Design the sequence.
């Protein structure tokens, strides 16, 4: 299930597409960062690139590996991920709708 359809079903009264787009992006970035942290232990092993163990290449290999982990986490998140982004969107949307209802009824938030 794509994130956009989750918003459409969770917030049928939402009128501002730009705000929804920002919410989707923020939720996907949040999920991506969580996935990156979960994937970090997978790359903590020895030099899996078949290098000769030269210490001068350690920082470059770490950078390449970090970019790879980031790319994988972003791809997983944008493809539907683990559902974390959907839950964030659902929760934020529900709280926003609750605040709007309170404001309409004159209740302090």
Sequence:
């Amino acid at each position: 299930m794509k994130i956009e359809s989750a918003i459409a079903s969770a917030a049928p009264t939402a009128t501002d597409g730009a705000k929804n787009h920002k919410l989707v992006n923020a939720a996907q970035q949040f999920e991506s960062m969580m996935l990156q942290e979960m994937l970090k232990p997978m790359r903590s092993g020895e030099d899996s690139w078949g290098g000769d163990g030269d210490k001068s290449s350690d920082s470059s290999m770490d950078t390449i590996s970090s970019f790879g982990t980031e790319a994988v986490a972003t791809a997983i998140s944008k493809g539907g991920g683990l559902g974390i982004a959907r839950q964030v969107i659902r929760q934020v949307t529900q709280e926003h709708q609750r605040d709007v209802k309170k404001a309409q009824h004159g209740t302090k938030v």
Summary: The chain has four helices and no strands. The longest helix spans residues 17-39. The helical segments are 3-10, 17-39, 58-78, 84-104.
